[in-house]
Write a structure and sequence with these properties.
This protein is mainly α. The protein is built from 14 helices and no strands. It is globular and about 70 Å long. The relative contact order is 0.13.
């Protein structure tokens, strides 16, 4: 039995490496072209690092391209707020449904997966009346787009957390903790969350990657995030815009690569 399990894990690792390699090969050519474009001079005959030197100078970027700095800060704040709100909503809800209302599991799953079928432009049309009140009551800051982004990342975060919850016996763990006098808050904080560490990290990384790459909602709501700032910057300085886009793609690859292998060491140790 252990031999079959080890063989299955080897096949799984090989498959994981094959998928990652195929994705890297598929995106390698355009990324090489993007990088080459950023290091070419005006004539295109020589290479220079002026674009990357300018991008590395934070003071220069913040003064010369204030929209880029503003969009980057807004996207980081949006990513953090979106992940926090998403976890505060999903983790307690999914845990409670599994413990008390298991018959509603399919219903909750259906609700969480609905945003996959709704285009971003339709989502904006539906949220426009809601955001009219949000802008009026809370102010017209970009950070409030986090409410819409929570809906956007809901399906991906649900899948990641659902995988983690299926791997543990939540009912037994919570009942054991409650029998020892733990409150429900202690059960969530000290029992459930530590066992969902890998799933929470996966959901968080996916949320950050999706928020940093989001353009449609922010653009249609006339708010500035990183992607909107990059489009505007591309009209003034395309090399800086392409360089930032290249860094965003590299970050996305790092996140996806980490998600592909997160928890592997832990699974190997537990076996």
């Amino acid at each position: 039995m252990s031999g079959r399990r080890a063989q299955f894990r080897r096949r799984q690792n090989w498959m994981r490496w094959a998928v990652v390699t195929a994705c890297m090969a598929f995106f390698a050519l355009p990324m090489v072209a993007m990088f080459e474009y950023t290091i070419q001079d005006v004539s295109g005959a020589h290479y220079t690092t002026a674009t990357w030197a300018a991008l590395a100078d934070v003071t220069h970027i913040s003064t010369t391209y204030p929209a880029l700095a503003e969009g980057f800060v807004a996207s980081v704040l949006l990513a953090v707020l979106t992940v926090v709100l998403m976890l505060l909503i999903l983790v307690p809800t999914m845990t409670w449904v599994r413990l008390r209302l298991p018959g509603l599991t399919r219903t909750v799953e259906f609700i969480c997966l609905i945003p996959l079928t709704v285009p971003a432009i339709v989502l904006v049309v539906g949220l426009t009346p809601v955001y009219a009140w949000v802008w009026y009551l809370l102010g017209a800051q970009t950070v409030w787009l986090a409410f819409a982004y929570v809906v956007l990342v809901l399906p991906y975060a649900y899948r990641a957390l659902d995988t983690g919850l299926r791997a543990i016996d939540v009912k037994t763990l919570s009942e054991a903790a409650r029998s020892l006098g733990a409150s429900w808050f202690q059960v969530m904080w000290r029992v459930v969350l530590p066992n969902l560490r890998t799933a929470v990290l996966s959901a968080s990384f996916l949320g950050v990657a999706l928020v940093l790459g989001e353009f449609t909602i922010a653009s249609l709501f006339s708010r500035k995030n990183l992607q909107v700032a990059m489009v505007e910057l591309g009209k003034a300085d395309p090399k800086i815009s392409i360089a930032v886009a290249f860094l965003a793609l590299v970050f996305a690859f790092v996140v996806l690569f980490g998600l592909s292998f997160v928890g592997t060491r832990r699974k190997g140790a537990s076996s």
